[in-house]
Structure formats: C-alpha cells, structure tokens
C-alpha cells in the first residue's frame, strides 16, 4: 500500500515538473511535456527543451527539433537527453536580444594590462599613422555578432563558433567617434560540461580567433600583429564572460520533491545524456 502511494505520488510529481524556468532577464527555458509520461518498469518523459525570449512574443527559432534515439541503458534512475536544439535556440534568443554586442573602452580594461591610448607603445607599433594623426586619444572597439553562434555537441566537448564584426574608432575630446577600420572575425572555443543536479554548467580556458580586414578608412594595415593583439583582447573579455554564464548554467527540470544526485554526463554527436539517481521525497514528508 505504501509503495503504491509513493509510486502514485511520484507519477503526480513527474507530471507537475515545472514547464518553464527563467534563465535570466533575457530568456526562459521551456520544459513542457510533449507527450504524457509513460510509467512501466521505468519512466519516460518527453520535454520540449527550447529557450525563448522572456518578455517578448514567442518567436520560433529557425532550427529543426532532432529525434532522440531509444536507449537501453538502465544503470541510473533517470536519463536526461539534451540535443543541439536547446543550445541553438538559446544562442538565437541571445543574439536577437543583442547579448553578443560589446563596446570595449579603456575603462573596461585592467589597470596597466592594455592601453587603448593612441600614444601607447601598442598602438604606435600597430597603427603608426593613427598614432601620429590622433596623438594621446583613446580608442574604442565595438564588437557586433553578424549571426547567432553555431553550437555543436561532440563526444568530448561542446564547440561554439561566433562570427562578429570588430569596428575600431578613435574617440575625440568631444566624444565623437572617428571610424578607422573593421575586421571580420570568427571566434571559436570548446567548452567542458558539468552538472550539480540542479543545472547544466560549462566552462572554457581558451579560444581562437581568425580575423580579416573588411574595410579601412586608414589604408593598408599589417594584419599579423593586429590579429595577435585582437586575440589577446578577445580572450581577456570573452573567457570570463563565457565562464560566468556557465556558472549560472541552464536549470534542469526538477521539483521540490525530486532532486537529481550523482550526475554523470555522456556526450555524443549532437547530444548530451545526463544520467542521475533520483532522491524523491513524498509530499507528505515535505
């Protein structure tokens, strides 16, 4: 009788798993069931797994929902499958919200690390004509993604690629921006995944960037030293930002009654399988 009541309560709690969870002020993750839970010797639940804007009308992302293959693994209580679709819809939402736009100015730089002053050694060596024409003025770099990031799950990591334009300016004393040049860039990094049972997290410790001159108002530019400087600047800004977002992570579908423990992540081409044991507390004991 007790087992029957617990099983009935467990079935009810699975049916009551939160269908939406806010990620931040920009996005919400949708875990709504697409079919009723199936209970036999185990539990099968199919969730949508899509990220959409938090405070604007829901706009379908231009991606195809993949089919998740059957899996005979019964070594854990629960298995949560996550596909590229979840990450791609998240990337699409944040791109539409302008989250991949950055303005790099001197006040955002660490003291003594880099100088965006036109009379600094770095700028004099990279852009001597700019240094002569605009002495002792600050520069600004505006980074704007030109498309949503492309995210691919592999067996060992998750690869992320972002295309962005980097616009370089000199800031005049009256705050007017003088345009210098624009670089095309492709920024790539690999992230490692983890989970604490409450959310799916990620981190990275390096990235690569390939740049090319798109247009210039100052003539020819020596691209190799510019590329090296841009790589250092991009790493300084993006790696901490990626890891800060990764510490927040994506919330997993849990409830006050259901907690995930001893989580293990297995990855394959296009998917993540998160295996976990369930710690279930009957409603009567809460």
UniProtKB/TrEMBL annotation:
One of its GO terms (molecular function) is lipid binding. GO terms for cellular component: extracellular space. Residues 72-276 form the Lipid-binding serum glycoprotein C-terminal domain. It comes from the Eukaryota. Coiled coil: none annotated. PANTHER family: BACTERICIDAL PERMEABILITY-INCREASING BPI PROTEIN-RELATED (PTHR10504), BPI2 DOMAIN-CONTAINING PROTEIN (PTHR10504:SF131). This is Lipid-binding serum glycoprotein C-terminal domain-containing protein. It comes from Patiria miniata.
